[in-house]
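Lab notebook: predicted structure, single chain.

Context: the supervisor wants predicted structures on file for every construct in the current expression panel, including those that have not yet been purified. This is the next one on the list. No modifications to the sequence; it matches the entry in the shared construct table.
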Amino acid sequence: MIENTERGERTSESNIEHIVMRRVRIIRILALIISTATLAVLTTVAGLWGIGKEVWVAQVLQNDPDNIFELPWFYLGAFWHTSIVVQMLILLTLVSFIFLVREFVRFLAPFFTPAHSQ
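Prediction complete. Output recorded below exactly as produced.
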C-alpha cells in the first residue's frame, strides 16, 4: 500500500497503475489527433478552401493554353499577377501538401522494407 500525501488515504499499486495507464492512453490519443499528418490535411483543406474563395478557379483553368510547354509560364504568370493573399494561400497549400506526402511515405515505408530474420 502507498500513502496518498494529498488526501492522507492509502491507495493500492493497481490504482496508481490505472491512473498512469489512463494518462498514457490520453497522451496517445492526443498524439494521433495532433499529428503532423492531421495538421497537414487540415492545412491543405483550409488552403484549398481559401483559394476557392479568393479566385475563380474555373476561369483560370479555362484560360490555360493548349500547348503543354506553355503551361508552366502561364501558371507562373497567373501566380505573379494575383493578390498577395492568394500567393500566400498557394504556398501554404503546397507546403502542407508536401508534408502530407512525406507523412504518407513515412507511414508506408515499413511495409516495403524487407524484414530482417534473426
